[in-house]
Design brief:
5-stranded antiparallel sheet; single chain; about 350 residues; alpha+beta; Aminoglycoside 3'-phosphotransferase, Chain: A, domain 2; 2 domains; 11 helices
Length: about 350
């Protein structure tokens, strides 16, 4: 489906969502090139209502083609969580409409407002690299944004539709089953890591909050002063143990091209101290939660590599995912005190599959 067809279908569908509107138009439809899961498009929607011209900048988020990196993929759950957050201080985009049938664009999607701000995921401008005060403010504001998520309690917010019990056990079971679903042979390192995580699982902190699931710096937008203006990518959001988010944030804190890795930004220890001050939640067992999140990243990368290997996806970025599996697996094992070097097993796509990609190129 080309952009003209997509725009025409969207115009007709949006007109149905706005029964009092006329002359609905979509302009500037463009795909956001970041992300490996859902497809995201931005555009401006304009219409006339009560003889008044109205326009809104919006974002369309489409369910990824099946099978994707994060199956089972629940787009409707993301939409409902965003709706529930409208009554909180969390700076999430307002969810506007949900198309749950897949009949309009071939896949389900929802529409949300487009928030102001800049997302830094692939590269950082030199002006930001040369501004430690702004880097400090950005890292502080990011911690404040994470704290705002964890200050959302299910009992005081309408999140009863999200499963809240045994999040860590549920996720350990899920990601182990994903390994079994896609692996081509024994994976000694990753399978040992899964066993170690189960054997050393810490006691739950005894507090249940909203959990974002992917609070990396690239999922936050910032204004020119360093304030967070929006929190995006709620694909793995749930209700459960907030320390899982802290482990994920720590793993991603010092990655290249992250604003949290710039001179002047809070260190990981300073991040934890500020978070505890803002939430009253004590952060314990940091090494285990970092290992847990390294494990999840490794499995997601394995799934991506195997999807490519099986020719279920054509995205060339998936081809190299397997190369990073040993890095995250080994880092997690070291966090848990396992020093021995273990065989990663077959984690990369078949050489013939890679060669076919090079031939097409």
């Amino acid at each position: 489906m080309d952009d003209d067809q997509r725009s025409a279908r969207l115009e007709a569908w949006i007109a149905e969502q706005l029964p009092h509107a006329t002359t609905v138009r979509i302009e500037g439809l463009s795909k956001i090139p970041m992300g490996h899961s859902a497809e995201t498009f931005t555009c401006t929607v304009s219409w006339t209502e009560a003889e008044r011209a109205v326009s809104a900048d919006v974002v369309f988020r489409l369910r990824p083609p099946f099978p994707g990196l994060l199956e089972p993929y629940d787009l409707a759950l993301q939409f409902k969580i965003l709706r529930a957050l409208e009554a909180t201080s969390v700076r999430s985009p307002r969810a506007l409409w949900l198309e749950a049938t897949g009949e309009v664009l071939g896949r389900e999607f929802y529409v949300m407002e487009q928030l102001a701000g800049t997302v830094y995921e692939r590269e950082l401008p030199q002006a930001l690299k040369d501004d430690p005060a702004r880097a400090l403010k950005m890292s502080q504001s990011l911690v404040e944004a994470i704290a705002s998520i964890h200050n959302v309690r299910p009992e005081t917010t309408d999140l009863s539709f999200v499963a809240a019990h045994d999040q860590v056990d549920r996720e350990l079971s899920h990601w182990r089953s994903e390994i079994e679903r896609v692996k081509k042979g024994p994976l000694p390192a990753l399978e040992r890591l899964a066993d170690e995580l189960v054997a050393t699982r810490p006691t739950s902190p005894g507090i249940v909050t909203l959990v974002h699931g992917d609070p990396k710096p690239g999922n936050f937008a910032f204004d020119e002063h360093g304030e967070v203006t929006g929190i995006f990518d709620w694909e793995m959001a749930t209700v459960g143990n907030p320390l899982t988010d802290i482990g994920w944030a720590e793993v991603n804190w010092n990655t290249p091209n992250a604003p949290t890795n710039l001179p002047g930004a809070l260190s990981a220890d300073e991040f934890i101290a500020l978070y505890e001050e803002l939430t009253g939640i004590e952060v314990t067992d940091r090494a285990w939660y970092r290992a847990f999140q390294d494990f999840k990243i490794a499995v997601i990368l394995l799934v991506g590599a195997m999807l490519f290997d099986a020719a279920l996806v054509a995205d060339e970025r998936f081809a190299s995912m397997g190369e990073a599996v040993p890095f995250y697996t080994d880092a997690a094992l070291r966090e848990l005190g396992v020093a021995e070097t273990l065989d990663p097993g077959p984690v990369a796509p078949d050489p013939e599959r890679l060669a076919s990609l090079e031939t097409k190129g």
